[in-house]
Amino acid sequence: MPKEYRIEHDSLGEVQVLTDAYYGVQTQRALENFYISGIPMSHYPRLIQALAYVKLAAADANASLGLLDEEKSRAIARACEEILSGKLHDQFVVDVMQGGAGTSANMNANEVICNRALEFLGFEKGDYEHLHPLNHVNMSQSTNDVYPSALNIALIFEVRELMDAMLHLKKAFAAKGREFADVLKMGRTQLQDAVPMTLGQEFAAWGVMVGEDVQRLDEAQHLVHEINMGATAIGTGLNAHPDYARTVTEKLVEYTTLQLISSPDLVEATQDTGAYVQLSGVLKRVAVKLSKICNDLRLLSSGPRCGFNEINLPPMQPGSSIMPGKVNPVIPEVVNQVAFAVVGKDVTISMASEAGQLELNVMEPVIGYSLFQSMNMLQRACHTLADKCVSGITANRERCHDLVAQSIGLVTALNPIIGYERSAEIAKEAMKTGRSVYEIVLEKGYLSQEEITDILKPENMVKPRYYRRS
C-alpha cells in the first residue's frame, strides 16, 4: 500500500515524514544521513528512558521558573511518562552511530515527545505552532548538556544490572567452592606442578576475583553521577535561567531517585569524558579477569583422556562435525570472545575521548554505544557462564587425587623439615625413576612413616602450618 507523508521543514528546507511517525524532520534527515551500524537507539531502552527523564525534568524546571506554561509542561510530561513506561520506543529510529555530538538523538527525543504532547493538547502531529520541539521541549537546553546527562543516567542503570549479573556469577563460584572443599588437587604455577590445594580453594578464589570487580564498578559508577544540565552549549549556561541548572538537577534526582549532582564547573564537564574512560577501564578489567578464569576452566577440563581432566564442564552441544563424541568448552569460549570485544571497545573509547577538541567532545555517541555494548555483553556473559557452565561443573575426584599422589610437587611440603638440598635430591630421583616422593623419603630414612604421613595429609598441605626443623 502507498505510504502517506506529511511535510515538515527546518532551516535547510522541506522534508517528507511518514504521517504516522512521531518523529519529525531532523530525525528523518538523520535516518538518511547515518545508516552506519544498523542499530537504532531503540536497541538501548535505558538511553531512551534517560532522555525522557531529562526532558521531563527540564519541562518541570522551566515551568517552576515561569518560563513554560503549565498546560504545555504537563503535555510534555505526559509524553515523557509514556516513554518511561515503555511506549513509543519504536519511534527512536536514529542510528546509535551519528555525527553531531548526539544532536540527532536529542532531536529524535524532542520530536517524538513534542508530537505526542501535541496529541494530548488536541492537535495533529507536526502542528508545531502550538508546541515546538525546540522552542518548548528543548527549552533551556542544548544537545551538549542533554546527551551526556542522559548517557550518564542510562549508564548508572546499566552498571547496576551488570553488577547484579556479576554477583550472580560470584555466588555460582562460591557454591562450587563449598562443594569441592574436600577435593585435594595439585596447584600449578607456569603450568608446572606447584603445591597441593583443594579444588574448592580454586573455585572460591574465582568468586573473590569477580567480587572485587563488583566493588571497582561501584566506585567507577559514582563518577557518572555528576551531570552538566544547565551548561547549554559550552558550559556558560547561555539561554538558561540562572536557577535552571540547580532546579533541573533537583528535578532529575526526584524523578530518577539517583544521587545526581551538578558539576561544579560546567565548562569542564561539557568537554571532559574522563569518567567514561575510567568506567571503560574497569569494564576491561572485568573482561580480562573473566577471560583468565575461562582459560583456567578450559585447561582443567581438557582431555578427557589426554588432558588435565580434573573437572567436567556440562556438555552443551556436540563438538564436531567430523569427530564423533567430541564435546567442546563452548561457554568459556564465548565468554573469552566477549572479553576480546570489550578490550577492543576500550581502545575505541580511549581514542574517542582523546579526540575531543576545545569545549566539546563530539565523539560521545561512539563512546556511549561502546559502553552499552560492553556492559550488555558482559552482563549476558556472566549469566551464561554461571547458569550454563559453572553451576553444572563436576569434579573428577579420583583423577585429582591420583595427580597429587604422583606429583613431585609434594616435596615442597618436606622442605621445612629435611631442607632444600635433600628435597631437591628427592625431586630429581623421583623424576628420573618415576617413583613416588613418599617412597623415596622412606627408603632414605629422612623421615619415619608416621612423620611423612602426617606432613602429607591433605588437610595439612592446604593451609599454613609451621614445622620446627630437627
Keywords:
single chain; 470 residues; mainly alpha; two-stranded antiparallel ribbon; 18 helices; elongated
Overview of the structural elements:
The chain is mainly alpha-helical. 58% of the residues lie in helices and 7% in strands. The protein contains 18 helices and 8 strands. The strands form 4 sheets. It has a two-stranded antiparallel sheet with strand order 1-2. A hairpin with a 2-residue loop joins strand 3 and strand 4 (192-198). Helix 1 packs antiparallel against helix 4 and helix 2 packs antiparallel against helix 3. The chain is elongated, with a radius of gyration of 31 Å. The mean pLDDT is 94.
Largest sheet: 2 strands, antiparallel
| Uncertain segments | none
Strand proportion? 5-15%
Distance between the termini: 96 Å
**Can you tell me the overall shape?**
elongated
Give the averaged pLDDT, no decimals. Answer: 94
Entry summary:
With 470 residues, the protein is mostly helical.
SSE blueprint:
Layout: E1 5-10, E2 13-18, H1 25-33, H2 45-64, H3 70-84, H4 103-120, H5 133-137, H6 143-179, E3 184-189, E4 192-198, H7 199-221, E5 226-227, H8 244-256, E6 261-262, H9 266-271, H10 274-300, E7 311-312, H11 330-354, H12 364-388, E8 394-395, H13 397-406, H14 411-418, H15 420-433, H16 437-444, H17 449-455, H18 458-461
Parallel strand pairs: 5-6
Antiparallel strand pairs: 1-2, 3-4, 7-8
Helix pairs in contact: 1-4, 2-3, 2-4, 2-6, 2-8, 3-4, 4-6, 6-7, 6-12, 7-10, 10-11, 10-12, 11-12, 14-15
